[in-house]
Amino acid sequence: MQTAAGLAALVLLAYALRLVVRLALLQIVPRFRASLGAVWLRTLLDNRILVRVAQIVPSLVVQTGIAAVPHLPVIASTVIRNVAIAVTALQVARLLCAIMDSIQEANESQLEAEQSTRSVKSYVQLGKMLVMVVAGIVMVATLIDRSPLILLSGLGAMSAVLMLVFKDTILSFTAGVQLASNDILRVGDWLEMNQVGADGAVVDMALNTVKVRNWDNTITTIPTWRLMSDSFKNWRGMSESGGRRIKRPLCIDTTSVRFLTRAEIAELSHIALLRPYLESKVAEITAYNQDFSAKAPDMADEIVNLRQLTNIGTYRAYCNAYLQAHPKLRKDMTLMARAMEPTNQGSPLEIYAFTNTTAWLEYEAIQGDIFDHLIAILPEFGLRVFQVPSGNDMQVALRQHEVQALQR
Q1: Across the beta sheet with 209-214, what order do the strands follow?
Q2: Of the chain's two ends, which shows fewer C-beta atoms within 10 Å, N or C?
Q3: For the sheet containing 336-339, what is the strand order?
Q4: Measured over all CA atoms, what is the biggest interatomic distance in the chain, rounded to whole angstroms?
Q5: Angle at the Cα of 116 (from 111 to 121), degrees rounded to 5?
Q6: What is residue 73's three-state secondary structure?
Q7: Cβ contact 157:201 at 8 Å
Q8: DSSP letter string, 266-324
């Protein structure tokens, strides 16, 4: 009877002390927590951590007070003490996990406020796994009343099996450390990895996986270790530079390329962006032709021996002047219109420039406006855009052929 009363009193005392400690911590600590200057102190004094601290009290009371229970057999005392120690180990492990969860939440808050750029989620997950493994070993060793070193020696013999079971975890953790230490990838980066169909923003970096929200709002999950074994493209440099590249060709019909006449040059001189180019180029060509005529008057009548302006060269000069004058293009980055190698698709003129914004909608609007203008002004230079003949083009050509045949 005394034994039962003693056990009941011990249990009541344990849970009474738990309530007292919990109330004391939750009432006192929050009053001065907000005044603490150190962020890490406020993180360690989170309410959830205080609750976990209070949950350790009952098992501590039981394992220290079990010896005071009268007439309790030694075996029962030992079993109860071992169970209490095991519960204490479990509660300590839960406390450590709560501390790591609080650290992770603080880190995520910094990520949202752009005060930090590296996620600690993978480290927290690994730490929680190690804590629970150690706690499990201590609990089992305590319950069977053996030293934890005996279990650890047995686990050493199973190291090969453990390496096989946790192979992906070990590889992913190593990859995560390399990604973080070398600042290769961050949460929020635009990642493009064609091997796994990922093209979007990184939304989560965990121990084993990296989640990417694609631009079509689907989620691609990538094993962390693949980011170190396979190549991928990180668009962070583009975002940080403040300029997004425009690199698109404008295919010009090669059959429309020709020399400009004097009348066409005079007409094009009315274009403000072209006037400086035409004045300097005409003066340069005139001086060259006069010098050539003086040296070889008998060959000066051949057009092939004289220099002349071409419509495509003049158009290329206009494109460069237009890009330089555009208010939404970066002048401190590469800016040019370059002639590419002619192909069966015509003579490509590539526009290579950088916008002054990296926002997708604004970038597309700027790019569209530039090409709308450059395509619309092509006829002023006597040029045409190359276009593969469509069924409608063939019908128009047949009708014209029939009309010409009837006229004959």
Answers
A1: 219-223, 209-214, 198-205, 190-193, 233-234
A2: C
A3: 244-252, 347-355, 336-339
A4: 136
A5: 65
A6: coil
A7: no
A8: HHHTTSTTTHHHHHHHHHHHHHHHHHHHHH-GGGTT-GGGS---BHHHHHHHHHHHHHH
**Encoded tokens for 347:** 């003579």
Closest listed residue to residue 327, CA positions, set 369, 364, 361: 369
For residue 195, the number of C-alpha atoms closer than 13 Å in the C-beta half-sphere is 9
- Per DSSP, the three-state class of 347 is strand
Q: How far is CA 110 from the centre of its chain?
A: 17
Count of beta carbons in the 10 Å neighbourhood of residue 51: 15
* The two three-digit tokens of residue 231, written as one number: 């190549």
Instruction: Report angle CA 275, 280, 281 to the nearest 5 degrees.
Output: 95
Query: Which of 310, 381, 319, 385 minimizes the C-alpha distance to 350?
Result: 319
Residues found in the chain: 408
Residue 352 in tokens: 């290579």
Cα–Cα dist 47/328, whole Å = 51
Tokens 């002004």 sit on residue: 377
CA-CA distance, 333 to 31, in Å (whole number)? Answer: 55
Contact 221, 210 (CB under 8 A): yes
Q: Residue 207 belongs to what H/E stretch?
A: none
CA gyration radius, the chain: 39
Residue-by-residue pLDDT tens, the chain, 408 positions: 677 777 788 778 888 888 888 888 777 777 776 666 666 666 777 778 888 888 888 888 888 877 777 777 778 778 888 888 888 888 888 888 888 888 877 777 776 655 455 667 777 777 888 888 888 888 888 888 777 776 666 666 666 666 676 777 778 877 877 787 777 888 888 999 998 889 999 988 887 889 999 999 999 999 888 888 888 999 888 888 889 999 999 999 998 999 998 999 999 999 999 999 999 999 998 898 888 888 887 787 777 778 889 999 999 999 999 999 999 999 999 999 999 999 888 999 999 999 999 888 999 999 999 999 999 999 999 999 998 877 776 777 788 877 777 776
Q: What is the DSSP string of 235-262?
A: THHHHHHT-EEEEEEEEE-GGG--BPPH
- Give the residue among 252, 259, 203 at the shortest CA–CA distance from 379: 252
CB 91 within 8 A of CB 50: no
Decide: 222 and 234 in contact? Cβ < 8 Å.
Answer: no
Which amino acid, one-letter code, is at 229? S
